[in-house]
Specification:
This protein is α/β, with parallel strands linked by helices and about 300 residues long. The protein has helices spanning about 15-25, 40-50, 65-70, 80-90, 105-115, 125-140, 150-160, 185-190, 195, 205-215, 215-230, 265-275; strands spanning about 5-10, 30-35, 55-60, 75-80, 95-100, 120, 145-150, 170-175, 235-240, 245-250, 255-260. Strand 3 (about 55-60), helix 3 and strand 4 (about 75-80) form a beta-alpha-beta unit.
Length: about 300
């Protein structure tokens, strides 16, 4: 079987690092064609020496010389700058582009990849928040598949497999509530950045961890879900689920609910997106019903977390 050729945009961030772990665990299935980073040139060099991509892009032009000196002698092409990100995803050899960039920076490379008819594994929700209509229209126009990597949207995507003929009554996006769940608005005035960066369940990058602490991330995810699944806002609900075992759920017209469950580990949705349509065997820890006899659910506190 031919290996999938992967471009990882943002390989030095949390999602990128975990994606490379998935690749390492499945060397017979995946090969890395492209790695990119914005500033973390030392880690990018280390990754490139291990995975030997054809091309590396460093976003910060000032760091080009350092990266080029380290990698050009081993046959890896090195480019720099935002335009190079947009160019590199057009390589004929790429099968799928994992967009794990932070914030608005993911938009232009995603558009470029779609126009080059590359399937997208999207871990950059801001791309759909700022340009959801454009991105989904382009995917339709260029016959490109968009695989969500956010755990909640991956869960919804998984629940909808085999359900094309059935109408969605509602989807439920779960939220852990973050490290400040239960605090009052007065309490929140005293919290520190360090406390906000200690998510109770997930290991993520700094921006998404801060956004999760304020629940702003869930607001962005509602917008993302609207575009991914072509839903109106009244069909999207948020439920606080502190254990983060149910990653999200879909309710159909007959009242049936399908949920996707598992331990909180971002490698699972990354692996699902890269391996789709196959579920790949792994040795990750398994959820135990008996060790988790209670799962709790609450309404989000929209007064404290406006």
């Amino acid at each position: 079987m031919n290996k999938k050729q992967i471009a990882i945009l943002g390989s030095t961030g949390s999602i990128g690092v975990q994606a490379l772990e998935v690749v390492s665990e499945n060397p017979h299935l995946f090969n890395v064609e492209v790695l990119t980073a914005n500033n973390s040139c030392s880690l990018l060099i280390k990754q490139a020496k291990k995975f030997k991509p054809k091309v590396v892009v460093i976003g910060n032009i000032k760091k080009y010389n350092k990266v080029n000196r380290a990698l050009s002698l081993i046959g890896i092409k090195v480019f720099a700058g935002e335009e190079s990100l947009c160019d590199v995803v057009t390589l004929d050899s790429i099968d799928i582009v994992l967009v794990a960039l932070v914030g608005f920076s993911g938009l232009k490379p995603t558009i470029s990849a779609i126009k080059s008819r590359k399937n997208i594994a999207l871990a950059n929700k801001e791309t759909l928040v700022v340009a959801g209509e454009l991105i989904t229209s382009l995917c339709n126009d260029y016959n490109v598949n968009l695989y969500p990597v956010d755990s909640e949207h991956s869960a919804i995507f998984q629940c909808l497999i085999g359900e094309k003929q059935n109408n969605i009554e509602k989807i439920y996006l779960t939220a852990s509530g973050g490290p400040f769940r239960g605090l009052s608005f007065k309490d929140l005035k005293k919290v520190t950045k360090e406390a906000a960066l200690k998510h109770p369940n997930w290991v993520m990058g700094a921006k998404i961890t801060i956004d999760s602490a304020t629940l702003m991330n869930k607001g962005l995810e509602v917008i993302e879900a609207k575009w991914l699944f072509d839903l109106s806002a009244d069909k999207i609900d948020v439920i606080v689920h502190p254990q983060s075992i149910i990653h999200s759920a879909v309710q159909f017209d007959d009242g049936s609910i399908k949920a996707q469950m598992g331990l909180p580990d971002m490698k699972l949705p990354i692996q699902y997106a890269l391996g789709f349509p196959k579920r790949l065997k792994n040795n990750y820890p398994r959820f135990s019903f008996f060790e988790n006899p209670k799962l709790n659910f609450e309404s989000p506190d929209t007064e404290t977390f406006k």
